[in-house]
Design brief:
transcription, mainly alpha, Arc Repressor Mutant, subunit A, WH-like_DNA-bd_sf, sigma factor activity
Length: 187
Amino acid sequence: MKTHNYNVFSDEELLALLHQDDTLSLQTIFSRYYTPLTQFSTIFTKDITSSEVLISDLFINLWDNRKQLQIRLLKPYLFQAAKNLSLNHLKKHKPLLEPLENHETLLSEHLTPFEILTNRESQQRILSLINLLPERQREVLLMSRIEQIDKTNIAPLLGITVRTVETTLYQAIKSLRTLLSTSEKKK
């Protein structure tokens, strides 16, 4: 590998160079994945600054542990690590969901107290049902419907194809409808 243009290297080639203490390989991996990893992390943390710190730490750990790490596929490894770091950060610093009070100011300007109460109950019920979905379906549904991320952007963030995003989203909505229907019958 005599070229100085590291951008032509595959992830596997960059990993091999990383194991040989090549700092340019780390810079290339950083350039390739820092922004998408930070965006992905922000989906969980809702805080770009925290996500930037988390992802920077991820790359520091990648460098520090480069000799011990046995990574087969770099991209899925980085996204899984980013997700784990983000979720751990949430456990330490912030509730998983924004308090509903943050939305009440907006709601109260347009709704009656009864409508606010009804919306709050509905929102909590739907969120609790979303938490019952399988992890991948929950991720895709929240990214698509709550974060408003386009399916073509979700695919690279999760390391899956656009078609898989569509299928998973379809399954998530179908499962959520079933859960809602079952929940209504229990009332």
